[in-house]
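INFO  loader      accepted 1 record
INFO  loader      residues=360
INFO  predictor   begin
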Amino acid sequence: MDGLDTLKAKYLTAVANAVDESALEEVRVAALGKKGEISAMMATLGKMEPDARKAAGAMLNALKDEIDAALRARKAGLADAALDARLRTEWLDVTLPGRPRPRGTIHPVSQVMDELTAIFADMGFAVAEGPQVESDWYNFDALNIPPEHPARQEHDTFFMHRAPGDNRPPHVLRTHTSPVQIRAMTEQGAPIRVIAPGRVYRMDMDQTHTPMFHQVEGLAIDRDISMANLKWVLEEFCRAYFEVPSVELRFRASHFPFTEPSAEVDIRCSWEGGQLKIGQGDKWMEILGSGMVHPKVLQAAGVDPTQWQGFAFGMGIDRIAMLKYGIPDLRAFFESDLRWLRHYGFAALDMPDLPGGLSR
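INFO  predictor   done
INFO  writer      dumping tokens
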């Protein structure tokens, strides 16, 4: 059968020159389609003698297979080229770091509460809680605060509204967490060892005071507790909280209605270069109030003061957070500024513990 080499060269060239799959399909139809040249030549085999038909059929099948293979190869090549072009336009470097998702942080007050809990838990103190709206009795009377005390006036305390003729005892937004001590002793009796962290409310508003702030108070009642035990507990707390090897405390006589004797506690420090350093220097800074629980307070809570005695102390959580973490203005704690919180906040999973370190 003449002309097969010419036909082969024609279609192999056409296949090689096809620029896309549409052009390639036109070549396939022209060569191998039902009306294509090679298909037309295959149709003439039936008119040939058997020997000639056999020889011509073998050559046409070989040509058909070769062109079909060329078509498949060219189609695969065009597909690879199209994919390369697409990848160049849609290229993405997956080795680049992803955009960090916004994440929340722990407020310094919450962090310091967790730190306090970890420290005092190590010394055997449980956490006690109570309501923020307290009766006048729990907030004042049970704590040996007399009716004429300035703290019981409206210029210092938030009193809850009472309708005219309402004879129920007045209620206040608690001015300290000391009422929790009364509730804990009433419920658990003695011996007892608890801390009471939480929100408190007073009529104070300036750079170092806000109407709502946070306090923690500690209470330990047993048969042989003394001021020496109080001193040790406070020294251990300050050493662990400020994460320094040693501290020096100074006790100054003071007066609180719910403790007798009472003492203000100062800590040795220095302010060289505007930076606070605890445990060194020649300055003293007041950090808390403390004393031995007044017998009348024990009686109010149902604890026999002839059998039991103990100590109590209280400090501002916001203030010690400012001291430890260098926060200059108390009001920023409550302004809901996300920039401030991102700067001073703590990672959510960095829970403070004594072996691992409090402020990681």
